[in-house]
Write a structure and sequence with these properties.
The chain is of the alpha/beta class. The chain has one domain: Rossmann fold. It has 9 helices and 7 strands. Helix 4 (70-83) links the parallel strand 2 (62-67) and strand 3. Helix 1 packs across helix 8 and helix 8 (184-204) packs antiparallel against helix 9 (211-229). It is globular and about 50 Å long. Residues 41-137 form the Methyltransferase type domain.
Length: 245
């Protein structure tokens, strides 16, 4: 199984592929979509859940989503048709870091996808190229809530504490106008869903040749979460505006 297939199976029951509950997503989108907004872009959209919720809430809005996973994009198309928003949604099978568009966007979203750009600040640099004057960026990324072990650092990368994370964003020319730090309940719910959905698929498809690998990945991920990074990793979502627009 490749990473994209595993991710799709793991996010079946938690389509917002970040540790956020429905109320948090709704509030973040409300702060991100300014009055009169016309276009929204999601870089690394996965199954398109952020876009689908934005389009369902804002009948005038048009959305573009970019992702390298054909499987995830197919799921986004199917859900968009079910919700009746497919005519306002355009999906691009493309590397998010190299995506180019003729449009400027009132909101650029990228949550939990910083790895595709090489980190938080490169993600913001990519978002900046797509942003209309006065537009906003909704970004979500991890941080160290407590001092991590060396094993956690090797596993999750070069993160910093919350204050330093926000300071780096500000020093890069952005001003936060809203933010949300995921609660312990949101963090745990996300990890239980990720591991549980993948394990459930494996147990329901025991005759599938990929079943043993899926179960092994779910088991290893659950162990890493509980033993290595559960007590140190956090997730912050920020709605940002350019300080000098």
């Amino acid at each position: 199984m490749d990473r994209q297939q595993i991710s799709c199976l793991a996010h079946v029951d938690h389509p917002v592929a970040s540790p956020l509950d429905d109320d948090s997503v709704r509030l973040l989108l409300r702060h991100g979509i300014r009055p009169g907004a016309e276009r929204v872009l999601d870089l690394g959209c996965g199954g398109g859940e952020w876009l689908l919720r934005a389009l369902a809430a804002q009948p005038r809005l048009k959305g573009d989503g970019v992702d390298v996973s054909e499987r995830a994009l197919a799921r986004a198309r199917e859900t968009a048709i079910e919700l009746g928003v497919h005519e306002r949604l355009t999906l691009h099978h493309h590397d998010a870091a190299g995506f180019d568009s003729p449009h400027a966007f009132d909101l650029v979203i990228s949550t939990g996808a910083a790895h595709a750009f090489g980190g938080l600040l490169p993600t913001l640099a990519a978002a900046r190229t797509h942003l209309a004057p006065g537009g906003r960026v909704l970004i979500g990324d991890g941080f160290w809530e407590r001092a991590p072990s060396q094993e956690a650092v090797e596993m999750l990368g070069d993160l910093t504490d919350l204050a330093t994370t926000v300071e780096r964003v500000v020093d890069d020319g952005w001003t936060p106008v809203h933010g949300h730090v995921s609660t312990r309940q949101e963090l745990d719910a996300y990890e239980w869903s990720w591991t549980g959905s993948l394990a459930t698929w494996a147990l329901d498809h025991r005759d599938d040749p990929d079943s043993p690998q899926a179960l092994a990945v779910a088991t290893a991920h659950r162990s890493d979460w509980l033993r290595v990074y559960r007590d140190s990793w956090g997730f912050v979502s920020l709605v940002l505006r350019r300080t000098a627009d």
